[in-house]
Amino acid sequence: MILDTCALLWLASGDKKLSRATLKQINEAPAVYVSAISGFEIAIKASRGKLKLPHAPQEWFEKVIEHHGLAVLPLN
User: Are the C-beta atoms of 38 and 32 separated by less than 8 Å?
Assistant: First the structure.
């Protein structure tokens, strides 16, 4: 399973936009990936003031990846 940037943000924040069924699928998936570009998109939103994060974007991204056991797909 691959999460897009919005799904990653919702997962990290516990947003109700992810249904219980979707959370169940994420939790039961053998592997859950996020593209490295999502980290870039999040950094852009944060730098433009459109997204508030508790940490610098790179640190936030790394913490979320580790906390949720996600794997990052490189840009290539």
Answer: no
The three-state DSSP-derived secondary structure of 14-71 is: CCCCCCHHHHHHHHHCCCCEEEHHHHHHHHHHHHCCCCCCCCCHHHHHHHHHHHHCCE
Name the residue among 8, 76, 2, 66 with its Cα closest to residue 39: 8
What are the pLDDT digits (tens) for 16-62?
Answer: 899 999 999 999 999 999 999 999 999 999 999 999 999 999 999 99
* C-alpha span between 41 and 61 (Å, rounded): 11
pTM for the whole thing? 0.91
Alpha-carbon distance of 64 to 62, in angstroms, equals 6
